[in-house]
Amino acid sequence: MITILEGTIEFKSEKFAVINVSGVGYKVFVSSDTLAKIPEKNSPVKLWTHQHVRDDALELYGFLHYGELELFEMLISVSGVGPKSALGVLAIAPADSLKKAIAAGDSSYLTRVSGIGRKTAAKIVIELKEKMAGRGVSVSAPELKEEADAIDALVALGYSPREAREALNNVLPEITSVQEKIKEALKRVGEKK
Question: Contacts for 71-80 with beta carbons within 8 Å, 24 or more apart?
Answer without folding.
Answer: 71/95, 71/98, 71/99, 74/128, 74/131, 75/124, 75/128, 76/50, 76/52, 77/127, 77/128, 78/120, 78/123, 78/124, 78/127, 78/128, 79/123, 80/120, 80/123
